[in-house]
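Subject: Interface between my chains keeps coming out wrong

I've been trying for a while to get a sensible model of this assembly. When I model each chain on its own everything looks fine, but I need the whole thing in one frame so I can look at the contacts. Pasting all components below, labels as-is. Any help appreciated, I'm running out of ideas.
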Amino acid sequence: MTTRTETTPVIPLPATAATTLTGLGALAVAASAAMSWTWTSDFPGDLTYYGSPVGLQWLAVAAGVLTLALLLATLGTPGLRWAAPTRSNNAVLYAATGALAVAAYSVTSISTELGGLANLEPGGWVLAGGGLLGVLGALGLPLDRRTHVPLRILDKRLFLLLPAAPVGWIAAHAIPGDKPVAPVMTALSGALAIAAGAVLLLQLGHLANSQLRLGKVDRPLPAPRELPSWVEVLLIVAAFGVGSYAITFGIDTDYGELFIGYLLLIAFMIAALAGSGLLGRLRALTLKYRPVTTGAAFAAAASFPFQTGEQYASVATNILIFATVALGLNIVVGLAGLLDLGYVAFLGVGAYAAALVSGSPASPIHVQLPFWAAVIVGAAVSMVFGVVIGAPTLRLRGDYLAIVTLGFGEIFRITMQNLNGTTGPNVTNGSNGIPRIPELNILGFDFSQTHALGGIQIGRFGNYYLLMLLVTALVVLVFARVGNSRIGRAWIAIREDETAAEAMGINGFRLKLLAFALGACLAGVAGTVQAHVTYTVTPDQYTFADALPPNSAFLLAAVILGGMGTISGPLAGATLLFLIPKKLEFLSDYQLLVFGAALIVLMRVRPEGLIPNRRRQLEFHEADEPAPPAADDDTTALTKAGA
Amino acid sequence: MHDLPQQLANGLILGALYGLVAIGYTMVYGIVQLINFAHGEIVMVGGFGALTAYLALPGGTTLWLALPLMLIAGILVSTLTAVAAERFAYRPLRNAPRLAPLITAIGLSIFLQQLVFSFYPDAKKARVFPKIPGDPFSLGSVTVQRSDLFLIIAAPLCMLALGWFVTRTRSGRAMQATSQDPDTAKLMGIDTDRIIVMAFAIGAAFAAVAAVAYGLRSGQVDFRMGFILGLKAFTAAVLGGIGNIYGAMLGGLALGLAEALATGYIQHLPGMHLFGGGAWKDVWAFVLLILVLLVRPQGLLGERVADRA
Amino acid sequence: MTTTTAPLLDVTGVTMRFGGLTAVNDVSLTVGEGEIIGLIGPNGAGKTTFFNCLTGLYVPTEGAVRYRGTVLPPKPHLVTQAGIARTFQNIRLFANMTVLENVLVGRHTRTREGIFSAILRLPRYHHAEAESREKAMELLAFTGLAHKADHLARNLPYGEQRKLEIARALASDPGLLLLDEPTAGMNPQETRAAEELVFAIRDQGVSVLVIEHDMRFIFNLCDRTAVLVQGQKIVEGDRATVQNDERVISAYLGAPLESTTPAAPEDTQ
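Reply #2:
Try treating it as a single job with all components included. I did that and got this:
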């Protein structure tokens, strides 16, 4: 299905007026950072100073400057043209909307937290006004749009919720408060109100979509300028430097407001840079210099503990553990198409195996294996469990694997709890877990000590972070190399069509078992490091769903959110899924609720994940595409027999 | 082994509970080939629906009057939830790749749990469910809790009703036809959408009965009760042959018996003295599942389980 | 072309029953080296079931299938490894892999590189991979798809998808190629091209067994044709034998006297 497109403004404004308005808005947003936003230092970050931007104000600077830069770039300003190869004004609109989002969020949270708009200083007003002006101006620029987007109306019956919500509210208040059922009714009416709000918002979204009709116009891209290859390599390194700085900034945010503002900014800026074509250019460059890209990525990741303190190194280590395990799961789910719902148990098996042979005083096995041996033990034991679980189930339909692994995850936890000396033999010390796992000491390098590396003090978590990064590198290497080999092709073939794959001589069962065992093995390796990082392994670290990652549901979500079958997807997904609960503590009560709802919605609207694999995306949207002409048995038989 | 009759009775009662829940898995699977992970949570919301009805009744209402009302409320809540889930979460994915509905089911399962956890008053920990008052019955060496009477009566009634529905009514026969061959059933003029909704609804109604039985047995309901119950019921469905409704009940009874016997006797086996008792019953149920998949993956009453080539 | 050596494929008395239903009843068939054999029959005659018996999807209730003198193993991947490759009636490509990758998957049984080799990437790995690619590109050139090597299989037009299925099957270096309705849904020009392709495959020393509805295609192509009706082989022979057989005519037309229908096999000249 081809959609027709046009390039027209949403708001009819003279071209110069629109450009001026956008530019002024962006400038105002950036400039507001130099002013005071509020009068009291009660708001986190203390936004009261003139001339010295902090926290949210830096986000405003970034948003304003980026909007301005993209505006100038699309106008064709010499020296900036590289930033917008597509010359699409949509990029400017996205950036301006990002600026407005940061502004609106800052102003709203200041006025709600401090109680009223009166708490805004002039800087706050400039910020809000600038944000609005910028978006209004950008809507007046000629934008890439589809010529026609039909207005989608939700199922009419859903609108019954709108009158039902107030009725429910009245009913809940009519019940005397001392009745035991009263709180139930209050909760029900609350749920009704939320549902009604969601319906309203969704319908408004559809309305906006049909009015804005934003789309993508294919226009010939100017050929990238010929650069010497060392410049291109430098560009890659610079891009990774910027990316690494952005991620470090996110991990370092120390209050929820800043983190939300940061997320808003990042989301819109990624959209803007994708729209401007800059990300596409960068991607082409990284594909051209694959080894350099990989090296730059790891150098950027390894530089993290040198940029930040011990507190954030601990967060980063845990992110890395989570991300590595998610990438291991992606071999199983993304490449071979097997749904493993108990994957965290394999991490647990590795961690317990390492803890048992670590020489911890609580371990009944009083041996202390060197770390390399512990890694091998952890990987091997995990793999054995993978084979034991996989062998009976992988011969059957995929759904069986899903539920058997779900069961295995739960049974693993229960078993670890039971092996406590009372209800079973004492192996794991029950729910207290195995504490006091000794610090690692590899070749005389004591991980518990602070070491000076290149003049910078790297503490305990920094050390473990660097060790974990090696494991991550191992998993990335395995994923990339095996994924693009005879074995990886066979996995993808099985995922696509198992019957056809078998007809090509692929032993489906054996290869699925290989994928499953390899996934288990890699999780086991990550587990051996995790045991040392956390000092203690307990059964409750390895659950199906829990507020804290890593757990099986979050691992799967990281893979799905990021994109199945890719390397960067699960890494990005895991980072987000780890940081969101960590930074937004006020969400903690509803976090899993939102998580569950998000999974349902995601499967409905974007089943291929946020960073889709080119292939995977096609596969998931199969139903949208016209089917190839079917070889209809009956009709061809009749028409051809006598042809 | 003098307590064998007691263990057998315990196993059968527990098994009937599993069987009732397993029906829901098996009916949905039989028709749309989807393992509805959220079915355990359908049980759970049914339990809370019944609890709400109990709380709404004036204090001191006799349980004989309250129980039918609780049952109706539970069935209502379960069925509505299941039908809504089918309509809004599963149906749009009917032609999607096979991972998508499974992931939706997990999302739904977490969502329902957390909905009750966050918004049902005092549901952060288990809530007290009424029990049928009175002393346990004794039949020779077997004692049966009064609360279990509900299950002992309800489970066979449900099975009889289901058997009658499937074999004697138009809709029931249409359902069987759809599970045999959905495409042909459609060509024969059967509204398969309606049949699928019906399968979800019947499964949910049985789930609500199971939830009330569970509440009466254990004297409490909690937001997490569906997880293990769902896993066990799925095991029962596989054991009996997934897709076969009688198999589900049979599998449930077999699983219940196996669990009771493992709990009671496994510690008497040589070398196994530390692996008996209630703490290990879930583990043994899981081991049984693995063994069944290894030895007879089609289950007791099932046909060959294989992808249609 | 006549067979003088022992047959490549030797099917003796294969019977396949499902419960009470006999789908294939005592069918024997041989395919010699370098032969193109056709298998026709009305819908539901058991052609596909017979095919499935040859490809390891089903184990025949009675009878045996021998390839180069050894009984075929009952697993599809082992059959392919033994040297029999197949295509599918309803195209089953790996739609989201590229054309080249599809053919590389076909090389699976003829390459040995395992997981450690893939991780370590020793010279031997690069060598094997390069060899596979070379072979795959040769096959793509042979089927006329070389210029589309980097396209996704799903984006190919219908006729090229059929060709790709054949290239993918040939990648396993088969001695016998089973084609399941290779011209279904094709127009006459494409059918003509398919004929040329099958001849070219035979000239490379691969025997072909083809199921078809299109009689003209079959008779142009095949050295011998067997007719399957209601699970039984009613006749086998050259074009004239089959075309003049009363049972074939009645099987296709219901009754011999109603041959006024334009779809009569006689009209295929």
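Reply #3:
Confirming on my end. Chain A touches chain B through 64 residues (CB under 8 Å).
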